[in-house]
Amino acid sequence: MSYPSDSSPTSNAIQRVAFALRTTGWFCFWTQLILAVVSAIIQLFAIAVFGPAAGKPGTTPGIGGGLVFAFIGLGILGFSIFQAFRYTRLSRRLKAPGMSRPSRAETMKQIRLGLTSNLIGMAVTLVASEAINGILLAKAISQPRGFLATSVNLQDFIQPVDFFVVLANTHTIVAHFVGIVGALWLMREIYKN
Known about the structure:
By secondary structure, the protein is mostly helical. Helices cover 75% and strands 0% of the residues. It is built from 4 helices and no strands. The protein has helices spanning 11-50, 61-95, 104-142, 160-190. The longest helix is centred in the first third of the chain and has 40 residues, at 11-50. The chain is elongated, with a radius of gyration of 22 Å.
């Protein structure tokens, strides 16, 4: 299945799809890029400043495992950002008469690839969130009560790094959500005719 030619009355549909690809592509690209950079900076800051390598009490192993999934989610987000940029290139190819115009099937394939990467990235990041929040709950429940606890281990207390990691993970989830909504909206626009 392909788009109609420029001479047909439905060439406005091609222009509408091209506009939707360009607008959605740039919106998703910049939103996801900003959220990914902020999330990466927060996670790296949390590891560098509050982590065990800095000689300070670090996170528990559970949060460390959650961080692994969070970084995998960030890596997948990087691919999703690239896919959002590709939407803008597809838009350019659709609008340019001299270039080889992508078919509807090729366009849908790219959108489905972006949607799939965002769904997988969100799933991985949600696993990270579950691991991190489970450890925080365990820490909160087992936290020693009172100021005069005899054997105080700072690992038993919720640390500021824990909140940094939760915040960074939330940014990654929101970025994947933006990509999912963008891809679903593009699918709707393509099949609007």
